[in-house]
């Protein structure tokens, strides 16, 4: 029994180790080629037949056992198993039929009535059948190769046995029911297709505490065991394939209608015939609209869009508006306004929000949108040349203010040129404090707000000669 336990433990270790190695291999894309999940889990049913070799007790003190021997016989069985990949559970049932034989040679010529009686008995007991049945359940361990067409299994079972047999006087020596029994078997299966395979294997079965009644003695309890080999057919039932869920079409966002109007800046005067350019930032796609007599226009957008809008018309300098998802909610009920300034030659237009750090002339990020508006104007009017001028307030010296304003004008010009505008179309001039817009000259006490009015950057269209 100890040797059998060691063999079972080694078989279990080999099976689990092989499955662990297989799991590691299966993690690579190449190893799973040809495998479908349905073949690695599900039910399988097996029918088998084979040959059983029993080991009955040898009780020398009892006459019948001294004389009687057992020989192997046929067996048949069926099993049902369910696997979750490498581990599973199963039930099985076995029917086994062995034979008792009497090897003792009697002397039929002897005068002893006792021997004659025994010789007569020999004829009747020479092939006495013994029957065993077993039903059990327990866990399974399995190695399944990557193609799912070969498996090696270790099946362990515990259950109940039934043993029925006779002794030398043809009386019942075994009549045992519900005997605790165990069984361990190995099974190797090759599948010829996805649902059927052929298997072969071997098993060990042991019955504990079997009631036994020898001749001329009371009942005793003993153990009976056997080994066997078998072959058969296995049928595999994969789980029903789960129908893939129909893809849910993404809900198309409801289009939003944006209504707008084009007016002259700082007035409510509408501008007719303005080309409204709407550009999607994501893909650069443009839509072009035309304002009507009232300067009105409308277009649709999706809530997730991000767009820029500006107007295009000869001799007009347009505001550029950027809108995103958060802005669309506001314009559902409020009309979008695009303002444009009329630009005549030699008339200056103030560029808003172009600020510089103290004593610096680098273009700050917050000044770029306004300069980009100038770039768009130059692109839309390729025949136009402009002057970019920078102005300071009256504080500090004349020389300092002139130098600082020239550097700032040069920086603004360089930014415009970097956006692809021909350098010959843009000139830069620094006027310092020579063109103040109010009374705040040298020596005049003014507020910061008044000084700020004089600090500015302007654009002026150069009149053609």
Short description:
This protein has helices at residues 2-26, 63-67, 113-125, 325-330, 368-380, 398-418, 448-454; strands spanning 41-55, 69-71, 73-84, 87-101, 128-144, 150-166, 172-191, 196-212, 220-237, 256-264, 275-280, 286-290, 296-301, 307-312, 316-318, 320-323, 336-342, 348-351, 386-391, 426-432, 456-461. By secondary structure, the protein is an alpha+beta fold.
Regions with little confidence, pLDDT below 50 for 5+ residues = 1-35, 59-67, 105-125
Amino-to-carboxy terminus distance = 117 Å
Q: Which class of secondary structure composition applies to the elements?
A: alpha+beta
Our estimate of the beta-strand percent is: 35-45%
Q: What is the overall silhouette?
A: rod-shaped
Task: Give a structural overview.
This protein is an alpha+beta fold and 465 residues long. It has three domains: 236 residues, Porin; 90 residues, Immunoglobulin-like; 121 residues, OmpA-like domain (60s Ribosomal Protein L30, Chain: A), CATH 3.30.1330.60. Helices cover 19% and strands 44% of the residues. The chain has seven helices and 21 strands. The strands form four sheets. It has an eight-stranded antiparallel barrel. A four-stranded mixed β-sheet has the order 13-10-17-15. The longest helix is centred in the N-terminal third of the chain and has 25 residues. The protein is rod-shaped, with a radius of gyration of 51 Å. The chain starts with a helix and ends with a strand. The N terminus is likely disordered.
